[in-house]
UniProtKB/TrEMBL annotation:
Protein name per its UniProtKB record: Mycoredoxin
Glutaredoxin domain segment(s): 71-128
Enzyme Commission no: 1.20.4.3
PANTHER family linked: GLUTAREDOXIN, GLUTAREDOXIN-LIKE PROTEIN NRDH
Keywords: Membrane, Oxidoreductase, Transmembrane, Transmembrane helix
Record Gene3D superfamilies: Glutaredoxin
GO molecular function: electron transfer activity; oxidoreductase activity
Amino acid sequence: MLRRWTLAILMAVCGALVAVTQLTDGLPVVGGVELLIFLALALLLSPWAFPRSVEAAEAQRASAADGRPIVYWRPGCRYCLQLRFSLGRLARRAHWVDIWLDPAGAAAVRAVASGNETVPTVVLAGQAVVNPDRAWLREQLRSS
């Protein structure tokens, strides 16, 4: 569970260290701005930047019922973050599975990605796409 938060915690700690250094150098405004930048990065790298994750089995049942895609992701993945923000509000239409939180999700990704945990991986109607085109996924979410 802590692994999901490692990068976010690291960013927050680095920001605090930089801010303290700037404060001791007599530059409190610079330190405050840098702290805010690091905290923003921590938020982006945290699981909070993504819609609520569900277990792989739950996502598969829901996807079979509503036809919406399943997006397998992990915190700290820059490609997952790019995909998430390129989707905007449409991201809430997909079923998101954090592979670091759900071993069954990680196994599902390894099954379609030659044994690797390559994310983001999208499964739609039984077809898996590793590192999907963002425009394609947006179109799938709009039509679902």
